[in-house]
Amino acid sequence: MFCSLAACLGVYVAAVWLYENFRTPVLLVLQTLKQLVFRQKLSQRYGQWAVITGASDGIGKGYAHYLAAKGMAIVLVARNAAKLNKVADEIRAKHGVETKVLVADFSKGAEIYPQLEKALVPLDVGILGKCRLHASFPSPSHCNTLIGVWFCTVNNVGVSHDTPMYVDEVPQQTLWDLIHVNVAAATLLCNILAPSMKRRQRGLIINVSSIASVGPSPCMATYAASKAYMTSFSIALRDELRPFGVEVQTVRPSFVHTNMTDFLVTGKEKWSKNMMVRVDNFMAYAGCTIGKVDMTSGHWSHGLQLAGLSLVPEVVRVYIFGLINKKLREQFHVQNNNKKR
């Protein structure tokens, strides 16, 4: 009797693990085959415009180029105007699509949202993005055909501290920035802009979370917690918006070589460098999942990492993340001490 119960439990656990880890690749294959038969451009399915936040560097810039290559007009959003204009010029020259720039500072907190609501709601904007009141918005006629692509994570209007730190070592302003940018921004913008997307009965929201969301991360505690929030929020939002024809995709990447992860490759040890995926390689896989699956790691190697982590209990995941982060923290302190000598 006991052996039968244990066998049934084992089969159930295996079935759950297989579902959680093979659901995305199976759906990706099926949806790819479907789209080979029923071809439809992204601009036809979602709208003419793709609005990308955190678009001046890294993953956000990668998404901008990918979607522009698919023929979509691009709205770039970030706080560095010079970088945004440079990326916009690159996109126009390489892909020949219309490109607009919006300058936005997302660390301002609650004070910016009444202005955002006042500026965006009358335009019937079908996007999720951030911008200051004085930013140049697309015209109302264009806003009726916008695809909503919202990024809130590493290099996509996301912040983290430069290196792994204990919570008491992180400057308070950095902690507030983490909360304002990684948590509050996506939540409030969805609250403000989801109604117009629901009225239009179409749209796509891409929330970039992180592999850190699957387990608490010592020395990156606040960042990991903000990513866990993003994953949970996105999954719930997906269920809320599905009846209205609005799609939500959650992306949970592991290490991608961007400006925010430069500190991981500055040391002499090669293990961290070998774990990195270049942005162009990441986008080659992540781009293929757009409009096909609602949950992805963005890259096949990251999917293997997530599958492996899901096999172990949380206490082991905490130990693994803590071991990596504490090692990086020690390495950073050694480098700093050497520079001071």
UniProtKB/TrEMBL annotation:
PROSITE patterns: ADH_SHORT (PS00061). InterPro entries: NAD(P)-bd_dom_sf, Sc_DH/Rdtase_CS, SDR_fam, VLCFA-Steroid_DH. One of its GO terms (molecular function) is oxidoreductase activity. Keywords: Oxidoreductase. Its main location: endoplasmic reticulum. SUPFAM superfamilies: NAD(P)-binding Rossmann-fold domains (SSF51735). One of its GO terms (cellular component) is endoplasmic reticulum. Signal peptide: none annotated. It is found in: Endoplasmic reticulum. Belongs to the short-chain dehydrogenases/reductases (SDR) family. This is AGAP007879-PA. It comes from Anopheles gambiae.
